[in-house]
Hints:
Layout: H1 3-34, E1 44-49, H2 56-71, E2 75-80, H3 85-93, E3 99-103, H4 104-112, E4 121-137, E5 152-154, H5 161-172, E6 182-184, H6 191-196, E7 202-207, H7 212-220, E8 223-226, H8 232-237, E9 246-250, H9 256-259, E10 264-276, H10 281-293, H11 295-299, H12 323-332
Parallel strand pairs: 1-2, 1-3, 5-6, 5-7
Antiparallel strand pairs: 3-10, 4-7, 4-8, 4-10, 9-10
Helix pairs in contact: 2-10, 10-12
Amino acid sequence: MPLTALRRLRPARRHVLRGSVAGLVVVGLLLWWLLPLEDETPSGQVTISTGARTGVYEKYGNLLKAAMARDLPRVDVRLDGSEGSWDNVRRVATGKADFTIAAADAVAKYQLEGRPGAERLRACARLYDDYMQLVVPRSSKIRSVADLRGKRVAVGGSASGVRLIANRILLAADLDPEKDITPVGLGIDTMPTALQAGQIDAFFWSGGLTTQHVRTLSERFPIRLVELGSLIDELHAQSGSSRYYRAATMPADAYPDAQHGKAVSTLAVANLLVTTERIDPEMAEAVTRTVIDSRDHIGAQVHAAQLVDLRTAIYTDPLTLDEGARRYYRSVKP
């Protein structure tokens, strides 16, 4: 072949070679884009302490577990029942659970008393408010907390948030929780039946609105809700974590069969999603994301959960916001 022809051929070969390399690069990029990436979601096992059987905490925990199974398929979620807020705080603080829901007053009391692991507690989100409810038969002569003197009153389990608030309310009304009433340690799963059967004269309950057990009771048995809001000043005068209670109003449609179109003055306290500094920040971030993203789905079955709000979730007083949760809120900040 003549030399001039060879010179003309070499550039052509170089162009072919360059084209082949470029094609391989494009194919490689397409494969990288199309092939599934390694799952980077957290893995491992977490335990969530919930609450009394068939209560709001337990139901919320079951729904959260289902949401985490969808969002965090490599995480094994285990639920443990409990007596309520006080029990929940203790379990998380001492490493027996990784996450829980607890009322702010119970958390603050645990901290103020310097209980084991209190300094480790952190929060992932402010969730929704619990409303204190004092339920009596509609025919009852009990019109105020003071009228509970000498009565049989269900006040929740010994380690429940209900018992904590109920005792403070009784003290605010100048009643000794141990001497001036007959305290009965029932949970929400048995309180309604005991009231209907005449085994107790009243029961205290603290939970999100609406609480299905109270609604169901109101539909089969005539009940009335006793106002509690007038005691807010006396509660705030008590030392410790009583400052976390605020005056609130149960809307008239919370329990239509019990309220007959009338709102009821009461007390409310915020619920927090609680963890500790021991938790992996990636896990805390992922769980916080699922809690916020699942608000509407969970709220369809737990009405109170509809009130979880990204704008207020970061206000977790008395707890510091967990570092993993903080990462999540920064990532979604407009």
